[in-house]
Design goal:
Hypothetical protein af1432; alpha+beta; 19 helices; 4-stranded antiparallel β-sheet
Length: 424
């Protein structure tokens, strides 16, 4: 590297995060291994779904970010997040393609992570002053960093799987053909198999066995098909390639699966509730936690700091769940369920009185979690006593007692078992 190039980098790097928070000695060391590169229009930096090991910073020009579901946005130096890595989340949520000739530089993700950890935790001059000041007295810089990524756009919300989006859009068209819908469902063998299995389950079982997606759709109906397909697509998001967080993700999936099964069963006893909508509410109630766990994979220090990870999950899962479901175009009732189901005292004013006697899908999710915790020996979360939860107390307005609902759950055991099997 020439002296002029080195001087240019020393002037350029402090504009970018986290290089703006390190001392000149370390900056000079890093600059030796960094090279400003050029690329022509159409050059691909990375692809959707990649687990590559590099981070990309834009110096000039613009980059098109293309999501799998067709969404697109342009990243350039006028953006508020221009001095952060481009779409850093793994797996990559976008493909990044040069929209014009660009200049950029690359740094290994492992080096960047180590730099950020050192900046957060060291007692020397590498301490990130701004992060520490905004993190609060507990020094929870990860919490602050994640909020910064949300605000800056560096953290990209996941898209609902493509097939589910296409099925939802097709069903909403007034002139579509059932054969086209069946063909689209068949393009995802996993969803097709689960849909046929649903049609033949105790929930929808008819006189004859359904042996095709077309017959399954005819039995289930369009609204149920739409909701079930969405539910199966959401289930596909409960996965991780990180060995560190597999157990966490497994517990999150199990809680979601149990909540959805109990939501479906209880909704049958509550006028005004749709069973399939209730099932979906149970599945997505902790979607924010799923996305946060995917984010946490980037930080190896979280694998040994359960307390810090728990703080992150409690603080941000609801907020992120709201953002994800808003992005997906879900109903306000489901968005509220994802945002507030973790707040066991929701609906209370400071005076201690109920804010509203209306029992909604979020209340249904909370009550389902209570019954799941009491009926499933290996349920993964602790819950309050039923009488301490306002959602449970609201059932009195519907003249339903806990004993009545428990008895119904016992009577619906076959359906409950079918649901657990279907969602697994």
């Amino acid at each position: 590297m020439s002296k002029s190039e080195a001087a240019l980098l020393m002037e350029l790097l402090p504009k970018y995060s986290p290089f703006d928070a390190i001392d000149s000695t370390l900056l000079q060391t890093l600059a030796k291994d960094i090279q400003i590169k050029t690329a022509s229009k159409g050059f691909s930096l990375f692809e959707h779904g990649d687990y590559d090991s590099d981070e990309y910073y834009l110096v000039s020009g613009s980059v098109r970010l293309l999501a799998r579901d067709g969404r697109e946005k342009t990243f350039n130096m006028n953006d508020n997040n221009a001095y952060f890595p481009i779409a850093r989340l793994r797996p990559r949520m976008y493909s990044a393609v040069a929209a014009a000739p660009i200049h950029y530089f690359v740094i290994a993700a492992s080096v960047l992570d180590e730099l950020q950890r050192s900046s957060r935790g060291s007692e020397n001059s590498l301490l990130m002053q701004e992060t520490q000041q905004n993190a609060g007295s507990e020094g929870s810089s990860l919490l602050y960093e994640f909020k910064q990524e949300l605000n800056s756009g560096r953290f990209v919300l996941p898209s609902l799987p493509e097939v589910a989006l296409r099925i939802r859009k097709l069903i909403e068209q007034p002139d579509f053909h059932m054969a086209d819908l069946a063909k689209l469902v068949n393009s995802d063998p996993s969803i097709a198999a689960k849909l046929i299995k649903s049609a033949n389950s105790a929930m929808y079982r008819g006189v004859n066995q359904c042996d095709s997606t077309l017959s399954a759709i005819a039995r289930l109906g369009l609204i149920t098909t739409k909701q079930m397909v969405t539910s199966f697509a959401v289930l596909a998001l409960f996965k991780t390639k990180s060995n560190v967080f597999q157990q966490r993700m497994q517990k999150s999936w199990r809680r979601s699966m149990m909540a959805s099964a109990y939501c479906y069963i209880l909704a049958q006893q509550l006028p005004g509730f749709n069973e399939e909508e209730a099932l979906l509410a149970g599945l997505i109630h902790n979607i924010g936690e799923v996305v946060l766990l995917a984010y946490a994979e980037r930080f190896s220090d979280l694998s040994s700091n359960e307390e810090q990870l728990d703080q992150l999950l409690v603080s941000l899962s609801g907020e992120l769940g709201e953002m994800v479901l808003t992005e997906w175009g879900f109903s306000q009732e489901l968005i509220i369920a994802a945002k507030e189901s973790g707040n066991w005292q929701r609906g209370l004013e400071t005076s201690g009185q109920q804010d509203s006697p209306v029992f909604d899908y979020c209340d249904l999710v909370q009550v389902s979690l209570l019954f799941a915790a009491n009926n499933e020996p290996d349920f993964s979360i602790e819950v309050p006593a039923m009488e301490q939860v306002q959602a449970f107390n609201k059932l009195e307005n519907r003249q339903l007692s806990g004993e009545q609902l428990q008895q119904f759950i016992l009577q619906a055991q076959e359906q409950l078992d079918d649901l657990k099997l279907l969602l697994s």
